[in-house]
Each structure stands twice: as C-alpha cells, then as structure tokens.
C-alpha cells in the first residue's frame, strides 16, 4: 500500500484505463469472431477460399442490370461460374422485381439456378411458404428451394424454430425435396443447431475467412458479400459448393418418374 501511495494519481487512472481498454478489446474480438465475419466490410480484401472447384453467386434486384453473356463466361475465385441463386420472394407479398428475368436468364445461359425466400419472423409461416410456391416454378435441374432465415424478430428460440419448421414442411411437401437453409454462422449456432434442422442442407454465411470454421455438415458457403464478378456492376455475394460439379447436379431436382 505504501508503494501505491507514492504513485501519482494520474498514473493510477491511466493504468486503470489501459486495463479496461484491454478487456474491451478482448471482448470485442470475441464478438467480431462470431458475428461480424458475416457482415459487410466493403473495401476490405476478400480472401478467396482454395480447394473448391464449384463456384457461384447469389443475386437480387440490388445487382440491378446484369450482362448475362459476360457473366456466363466469368469466373469466381479462378474457377468457372457454375450456379446462380436468385432472390424470389420476401414475407407474404414481396416479389423481387428482377426475379423472373434473372431466373429465366440463368437457365437460358446454362447455369444451375436456384431461388430463395427471405423469411420474415412473426409473419404467418405457412402463408410465406404459399406465397413462395405461387411465384416460383422449380424445374428438374434446378436447385432445391432455399429458405433465407437470418432475423429472429424478437421471437424465442422455440417460437422461431416452430415458424421455420412450418415453412420447410409446406415447401418440402410441394416440391418433393428438402429445402436448403441459408443462414449466418452465429444464427445457425444459436437458433438452428438441432438434429432436426441438421437433416437439411445448409448454406452458411461466414465472411472474411480462408476456411469455413463451422464444424457441422454444410453444402454451400457464402464467403463474402463484396465480391466482384465480370458481368455484374458493384458488389455481389460469392459462394462455394462443398463438392464436385457432379455432386451439385445430383443435389438438383430430379425428373419425376
């Protein structure tokens, strides 16, 4: 205590502030690791994951005008563009204004195509499923329907899971194939990390990592939302498929017998 009494008060204050700052930075690093890696960081260098031969993008009206002739011949991370997943619907009434054109052009340009629904928690899940079904005509060779769920709507884990379950069941019954679930790393771990949901193919968003750190099974990895691909002005989400081109084709909807 005598030694401390000889230390100037300003030094004690400075030391306390430095210690507090250290703890704040440590906590912030932990938070960033589990949540911010899937947030936009435009202008940052984007690590290109290595070892994946099947690459694709997902698009919506935010990409505005797309030069499909150029896009078809472009590459992502040094590999040919193979698939495009298009935003179709949101909630119970919003149809993406570019969906029909983008969805048609993806097939016309011989790309594997998919369609996703942006889920609004707290809004009737069955009505959301019915709206998606009414606007999206998936054909053999298309990817299974995709549910984009990344907001909790202030619902409990159990409430959100029940809503997601209803959407999945309605859509799976209609198309005869298990939908793909899109979500970010942190959301998956908090809300959808159960044996029931793990039976579905997962598309995980986790940004600015050279390898996806999610330890469960996954089908697609959205590794950045600020990629740049020829044929698209501005930024676009870039993805890898966890498998070969043959396996991607096998995932697609089959002809009915």
Terminal Cα span: 85 Å
Trace the largest sheet across and list its strands.
1-3-5-6-7-8-9-10
- The poorly predicted ranges are 22-43
What radius of gyration results from the CA coordinates?
22 Å
- The backbone outline, from C-alpha atoms, is globular
Beta strand %: 15-25%
- Element order, helices and strands? HHEHEEEHEHEHEHEEEH
Number of strands: 10
Task: Name its key features.
single chain; 257 residues; alpha/beta; eight-stranded mixed barrel; 8 helices; 10 strands; globular
List the helices and strands and how they pair.
Blueprint: H1 2-6, H2 9-34, E1 55-59, H3 68-72, E2 75-76, E3 79-90, E4 94-95, H4 99-108, E5 112-118, H5 125-135, E6 146-148, H6 157-175, E7 180-184, H7 185-191, E8 202-205, E9 220-227, E10 236-241, H8 245-251
Parallel strand pairs: 1-3, 3-5, 5-6, 6-7, 7-8, 8-9
Antiparallel strand pairs: 1-10, 2-3, 3-4, 9-10
Explained architecture:
The longest helix is centred in the first third of the chain and has 26 residues, at 9-34. The protein has 8 helices and 10 strands. It has an 8-stranded mixed barrel with strand order 1-3-5-6-7-8-9-10, surrounded by 4 helices. Strand 3 (79-90) and strand 4 form a beta hairpin. By secondary structure, it is of the alpha/beta class. It has helices spanning 2-6, 9-34, 68-72, 99-108, 125-135, 157-175, 185-191, 245-251; strands at residues 55-59, 75-76, 79-90, 94-95, 112-118, 146-148, 180-184, 202-205, 220-227, 236-241. The relative contact order is 0.17. Helices cover 35% and strands 21% of the residues.
